[in-house]
Design brief:
The chain has 375 residues and is of the alpha/beta class. It contains eleven helices and twelve strands.
């Protein structure tokens, strides 16, 4: 078993424990606010345990590609999104109910809070599903890039990240995404990881679609953590089939002198600060430079080495509110544009979604940059 997949599986006991706790909380919440529901407490608790166990079963099943695997996985992911939104509002509702009780409010307030939680959960789930199913919005960003020659002034780059082709992100949506990029007509396309999820079995069909995604000066890509879960060799072949130049801890130089460095997923491949610094030390400081890194980590190293622009993804902007508050604990540079000295970092929300086909207050996007030369 590949080390990346092994680490992914070792993380699962903690994740499943958290998932079980969340499902158990919802089961107890139902019993507390709706004691007349015709389901026994034992049945609800058993259901919570089964739901928590369904996610690892889903990942195993879709890898095997068994009959009904994708239907089961889709429903599992959908419930995961619904239950997370419900859990967040249930906790908020419990806080309101506690405050109302301390203030001496009657039983009517308790009932109104419970129904309010269910109604808001339903509305938020619909909004999250609707947002995720729509096309990603194009975010246009104009940036100065140090040492960019005047002949490259106005050079355009489209960044695609976190498409997550798999159970809930299917080929028709990827085809529409390709149409959007083609319509933008960029000079360069960069793919900053997580295009493929574990268990995706349509690499060749996806490559036929993805081959249309290219810039006038080509397409560059780096591997995200999910490419390693999908399979390092298979993922490399996928990008090769797209005619994308895969940068694996290496540097390429485009016509006009624009240097682009690319690094494998920092955490999955355990890239050290010294290794990244060594890679960036090979850049010519008198020429413009860009760093592609799936995870928005070690931005300070890029700044120290004088990189003009770093492009990352991975965070999904939290994907489902309020999950973003937890993501920020691990990734302080969470979403958007950051600057340190003469170096800029852009962290995209991503064009797709992982797992639940839902995005709440974190819409998908395609980032389009227009580079400007500086005096």
């Amino acid at each position: 078993m590949a080390p990346a997949m092994l680490r992914f599986l070792l993380f699962f006991p903690l994740f499943i424990l958290i998932l079980f706790g969340m499902q158990l909380y919802l089961a107890v919440w139902v019993l507390r606010y709706f004691p007349n529901v015709p389901v026994s407490p034992l049945a609800l608790r058993a259901t919570a345990a089964l739901i928590a166990a369904s996610l690892p079963l889903t990942l195993y099943w879709i890898r095997r590609g068994g009959l009904g695997a994708f239907t089961f996985a889709y429903l599992t992911y959908l419930w995961l999104g619904i239950s997370f939104i419900w859990f967040a509002w249930a906790v908020f509702g419990d806080c309101l109910a506690l405050a109302a009780r301390l203030a001496g409010a009657g039983e009517g307030m308790r009932s109104a809070t419970a129904w309010g939680v269910l109604i808001v959960t339903g509305l938020m789930c619909f909004l999250a599903f609707w947002t995720a199913s729509g096309p990603p919005k194009v975010r246009n960003i104009e940036l100065p890039l140090a040492h960019l020659p005047k002949e490259l002034d106005g050079f355009s780059i489209v960044q695609l990240s976190d498409v997550h082709l798999g159970v809930t992100e299917r080929l028709p949506r990827f085809e529409r995404l390709a149409d959007q990029v083609v319509a933008l007509g960029p000079d360069l396309v960069v793919m900053t990881g997580d295009f493929l999820d574990p268990g995706f079995h349509e690499d060749k069909a996806a490559a036929v679609i993805g081959k249309r995604i290219h810039g006038k000066r080509g397409t560059l890509a780096v591997l995200g953590n999910h490419e390693f879960y999908h399979g390092e060799e298979a993922s490399s072949e996928f990008f090769k089939a797209l005619d994308a130049r895969l940068l694996r801890n290496e540097i390429t130089e485009l016509p006009g002198g624009l240097q682009v460095a690319g690094v494998d997923d920092i955490r999955t491949k355990r890239v050290t600060r010294e290794q990244l610094s060594d890679l960036l030390s090979r850049l010519d400081p008198k020429k413009p430079s860009i760093l592609l890194s799936h995870q928005p980590l070690m931005f300070d190293v890029a700044a120290e080495r004088g990189v003009g622009l770093m492009l990352s993804g991975h965070t999904h902007r939290g994907q489902i509110f309020p999950f973003g508050f937890l993501v920020r604990l691990f990734y302080p540079r969470f979403y958007g544009l950051y600057r340190e000295g003469g170096t800029s970092l852009y962290v995209t929300a991503g064009a797709g979604y992982w797992g639940p086909p839902m995005r709440l207050f974190a819409p998908p996007e395609i980032a389009r940059f227009v580079l400007r030369s500086t005096p």
